[in-house]
Specification:
homodimer, alpha/beta, Arc Repressor Mutant, subunit A, Rossmann fold, 2 domains, 7-stranded mixed sheet, 44% helix, globular, DNA-binding
Chain lengths: 209, 209
DNA sequence: GACTGTGAAGCCATTCACAGCT
DNA sequence: AGCTGTGAATGGCTTCACAGTC
């Protein structure tokens, strides 16, 4: 095992491997080769082995990997052995969809509250989750050990929300769905999810032909 | 201008540049430098110039780029001068969110119908869009010149939906939100959007520190 | 003086190919 | 024989640095 710089693409793939392995595990399969994993996730065997080798020697030569054990290792690497408390800001359509998204729960992310500035929504529930006013957000974050915020407000409000989250000193990461670049101190992790970019790359690739 | 292989990352960034320029254009700004674009989208000036240079010489030395003209060029490159007819398969939460998502409309993607196999939903409207049965999908695609399908069904049904879309001979691209690898003939473009991967990379980056 | 366009250099990620275990 | 782990080779993307143009 080497303590090298890990490619971000490797980390993304580990996440995919882990979800795939979770499914395989449920089927009761005990061992799996890099080739089988590659097949299952749409990659190459060499890539799978290289990705895993950044973090240790998890396999057995001639045999492959123990599914359960490997998945456990990967989840440890990704920080998924514990559960994360997450809040969602923006009770619009996308926020509503994400608040109910099974995948987050299944992978250890508990969305515990939703925040919005629309006073018609505040006090109501969104898929069983309480909706609070943004003015209550900082206090809530600190009291409830929230470390990740998901921003699904319109672009023009995203920076304001980010500023409040940063101030809490508890938030360590932000998943931003607003199509705007956030200015955030670098000790806080930010990832942008851009839904239209994906459609536009598709459009480009189609037209190119 | 060279007809080289274009990095996919470049295409993604062009999409971001274009959306940014659309905003700048609305402010009535006429010219912009690579440095200003970089600032606006969170990149570097050299990157911006290199990305654009793959497709032509759009700027003026000493001056910069004409905002409106550059945006028009980029939209042409991305295939966004026309509008695309899009259908959405899966009238669940995520589908509902996407069907209403402004960003798609604004960028030239018309979602014209939603399909679902839940007979309690079929016949109803989702944010003003008709919900049809999946059995009607192939016919609809061919009659309405639909070229892109957005899959938001659970993982276990995604391949079946993809198979139907492929059969239509009209669909040219698929945006897949199901966390599963689709088997698709290579003449059809596929892009996967994986929501949990982003959260897990965030988790990894937070833990790493 | 300001800013683009671009070859060259540098850096990062993927693929290859094989030694090393079981 | 089968499959992992990994240095080396390759390929691709980004950054640098400067010539070219206005």
């Amino acid at each position: 095992m080497k303590e090298l710089k890990i490619p971000e693409a490797t980390v993304s793939r580990l996440s995919v491997y882990s979800r795939y392995l979770t499914g395989v595990e449920k089927q009761g399969i005990v061992n799996i080769s890099s080739g089988e994993i590659a097949e299952g996730v749409g990659g190459t065997p060499a890539q799978v082995r290289k990705d895993l080798a950044y973090f240790g020697e998890f396999g057995t030569r001639g045999v492959g990997y123990n599914v359960k054990q490997l998945n456990h290792e990967i989840m440890g690497i990704l920080g998924l052995k514990k559960r994360w408390n997450v809040i969602l800001i923006g009770a619009g359509n996308l926020g509503s969809a994400l608040s109910q998204y099974r995948g987050f729960q299944e992978r250890g992310f508990n969305i515990i509250a939703v925040f919005d500035n629309d006073m018609n929504k505040v006090g109501l529930k969104l898929n069983g989750l309480p909706i609070y006013a943004v003015s209550q957000m900082a206090e809530f974050v600190d009291k409830n050990d929230v470390s990740i915020g998901i921003i699904t407000v319109p672009a023009e409000y995203a920076q304001d929300i980010a500023d409040i989250l940063v101030e809490t000193q508890n938030i360590k990461g932000i998943l931003n769905f607003a199509p705007v670049v956030l200015t955030i101190p670098e000790e806080i992790e930010v990832r942008d999810v851009d839904l239209t970019v994906n459609l536009e790359v598709l459009s480009y690739n189609i037209e190119k032909k």
